[in-house]
Design brief:
The protein is mainly α. Helix content is 79%, strand content 5%. It has helices spanning 25-58, 62-106, 113-163, and strands at 6-9, 15-19. It has a two-stranded antiparallel sheet with strand order 1-2.
Length: 165
């Protein structure tokens, strides 16, 4: 009866429920995967709803969201500007050291090892700062694109909450 399935009946002969036969292993595996996907989708929907509620609480108006986004872009700009100031200073120091090293070479004097190390260190720092500035500029572009997506999502969520009683 277990292999074919069976009915559970009461003492008066009424059918209470039907017990289905066990599913083949492949079918059970597919059912388990479908159930796992369903749970994952439900969890993602709950997280999305929670995130949307938090967004609406943090930014009651579209203007508030735009202000926060503008502030974040301004902060990135400040990082870029301060790094550019530091870069200019380091480039000036590097130019001065290279000029000094060139003067030593023209007079036939050897370049001290400490000066060579300082030049290499400054070159490495200049390259790091240039890379940092480029990364921050790309972050700004990416953030601006992300903000457009967030703003569109905000508008959708806001419209949905207004249409619900």
């Amino acid at each position: 009866a277990i292999q074919a399935g069976y009915d559970v009946v009461s003492g008066s002969g009424m059918k209470i429920r039907h017990v289905a036969p066990p599913k083949p292993a492949e079918q059970q595996k597919a059912d388990d995967q479908a159930q796992a996907q369903k749970k994952a989708a439900e969890k993602a929907a709950a997280e999305r709803a929670r995130d949307d509620a938090q967004m609406l609480a943090a930014y009651p108006t579209e203007h508030d969201l735009s202000d926060a986004q503008t502030a974040q872009l301004a902060m990135i700009d400040q990082y870029i500007q301060s790094t550019q100031i530091s870069l200019q200073s380091q480039e000036k120091s590097l130019t001065d050291m290279l000029s000094h090293a060139a003067d030593l070479e023209r007079t036939g004097k050897p370049i001290p090892a400490t000066l060579s190390r300082q030049i290499e260190t400054l070159r490495a720092n200049v390259e790091k700062q240039k890379a940092y500035i480029a990364a921050k500029q790309q972050e700004k572009v990416d953030s601006a694109a992300k903000f457009e997506t967030e703003l569109a999502h905000y508008r959708e969520v806001r419209a949905k909450t207004r249409s619900q009683p």
